[in-house]
Amino acid sequence: MNLTLNQSFEDNLELQSSMIAYFSLEFGCSQSMHQYAGGLGILAGDHLKSSSDLGLPMIGIGLLYHEGSPHQTIDQSGNQRDFFEHVHIDQLPLTPVFDESGHPLTVQVAFPEGNAIVKVYEAKIGCTTLFLLDTYHEENAHEIELMKITDRLYHGGREHRLKQEILLGIGGMKALNVMNLLPEFLHINEGHSAFAFTELIAHEMNKQSETFHEVINRIQSRLLFTTHTPISAGNEVFTNDIIKQYLASHCMDLHLSMDEFIELGKSPNTESHLFSMSAFALKIAGACNAVSALHGEIAREMWKGISTNSKQITSITNGIHTQSWIGEHLAELFDQKIGDSWRQYPESIESWSGIMELSKDELFHAHDSQKKSMIATLQVRSAQSERSIELDPNGLYIGYARRFAMYKRAYLPFMDIGSLQRILKHALGKVYLVIAGKAHPDDHEAKAIIKHIHDLIQQHDLQSSVVLIEDYDIALAKSMVQGCDIWLNTPRRPLEASGTSGMKAALNGCVHCSISDGWWDEAYAPNVGFEIPYAQYPPSTEDQDKIESNALYYVLEHEILPKYFSRNSNDEWSMLMKSSIFHLGPRFSSTRMVREYVERFYIPGIMQSKGGK
């Protein structure tokens, strides 16, 4: 089925009369809505935005965190300090949902401490509605542990996390039921919200007087699980004992024994006393997808003990919401020179056909304007942290910004300080390395990387060339992908499931340079960016780091710097920028991504469930 835009959705009566629910533990929709921690939430926000653009009948379901996710400072010793800020709900673009009597709509979710009273707020993401569940209010004041379920994102012990996931999955589905919005298709973004599957099953069991397995057989085609984690240790697990403590009433609703329920969470990749949310989702869902082609290969191998030929893990590569991430100066240039169809049809390469005809001067002028805006942002941010810097707009800016995690290897450019210094102070011109990103509050290894980089900057007097910016957020991400010249990514292949920051950079003519992992494994070509050769069979991770850091230095010094600093005397760099925008912009648009979900999962699932063909 080849779909075009809104008209095709209107022609498909099955889709038009259906509701698609998209569950995620975090949503990154705007700078003001600090309800996200990283790429998972940004992806969820872009998914809703593109669904709105396409006129898709979709609703989002998440939690309303009253202190959001952690903010970050880096002290003078290089230590990450985490802090939370109270979110002023009344200042956000949110409205309470009311019932038919005009009272705030509430649902109740059972926990060992008692029933949590859950209020519901809604936000408009374009034409799409995002519902957020809230326990942080006076009706739960008698039991502080219930009240605080929606206090913070990704913060607290394992029981607190399980409460949030029960609230999201079970409470989210209860709220949709009360609002008469039970979905015909249910899509969960990572395994956190997998209990939404079983709550929908419980509702159908009660409604149709069917057994658990009868309902699964009937509605399984309507259940989709998107997995984002290519390593077993990264998948959410809870001890069986905690599951037994918190899900007893849910098991009763499903008419399952606790042993039967626990069996659904058993995984060949985890110990027998652990309950895997990913395994649970994978066993119940009718379909599962990874988020890049390479990740699909890894996921099929990782879950081969659960997935079967009849339910093979496939892949839909992530994308980005074009209008949210493109810089204003480039957008203005495109409107003037190639027309504005790229706004309405961002996934169509025809919309971008005039890009290759742009003159070098007008492209450089637009990019330089965005670079100056980025420099102003960096100077303000550095001054706020008492690390005031002077930056040359004529320099080459290498951006590295993402969540700090061991496998992402932010330390790789610092493996050989002599080589790095030679590149930063190259005879051809000034080079800057701009680094931003947070470590999870409990990830002490990642925090140690931040301190290590900070210490190396101080020890080797790199402050004038290496800019370490704290409190990475949507505003800083936009500024950097729009203003940098090179976007650097150094993951340990194949541990980067997809990655989307490089897509945002590529859309802005910020040329991507990366290990061949995640999306770059399928996107790289010599005319659109740079590939850092990876060690295929290294004897150890230490050897791999050394080999690949040397490869990075070579690519920077012998490929990138000569091309960039000769950009005014030939067309090589401008052609790289234009090819990056033209070939990667439409291909990695979240509009293309959502279309794939519609064509491959949403419509077939809905039609199969309704007996269509």
Walk me through the topology.
Layout (H helix, E strand, L loop, with lengths): L5 H6 L1 H4 L3 E4 L15 H15 L4 E6 L7 E4 L5 E4 L11 E2 L9 E6 L2 E12 L2 E7 L9 H4 L10 H21 L6 E5 L5 H14 L3 H8 L3 E4 L10 E3 H7 L1 H7 L3 H7 L9 E3 H8 L2 E4 L2 H10 L11 E2 L6 H4 L2 H11 L2 H4 L15 H25 L11 E6 L15 H8 L6 E6 L7 H16 L6 E4 L4 H10 L2 E4 L11 H7 L3 E5 L4 H4 L5 E4 L8 H25 L6 H16 L2 H20 L4
Parallel strand pairs: 1-2, 1-9, 2-8, 9-10, 10-13, 13-14, 15-16, 15-18, 16-17, 18-19, 19-20
Antiparallel strand pairs: 3-4, 5-7, 6-7, 7-8, 11-12
Task: Describe what this molecule looks like in 3D.
The chain has 613 residues and is α/β, with parallel strands linked by helices. The chain has two domains: 6-319 and 592-609, Rossmann fold (3-Layer(aba) Sandwich); 322-587, Glycogen Phosphorylase B (Rossmann fold, 3-Layer(aba) Sandwich), CATH 3.40.50.2000. The chain is built from 24 helices and 20 strands. The strands form four sheets. Strands 1, 2, 5, 6, 7, 8, 9, 10, 13 and 14 form a ten-stranded mixed beta sheet that branches. Strand 7 (114-125) and strand 8 form a beta hairpin. Helix 6 crosses helix 7 (212-219). The chain is globular and about 75 Å long. The relative contact order is 0.11. The model is unreliable at 1-7 (pLDDT under 50).
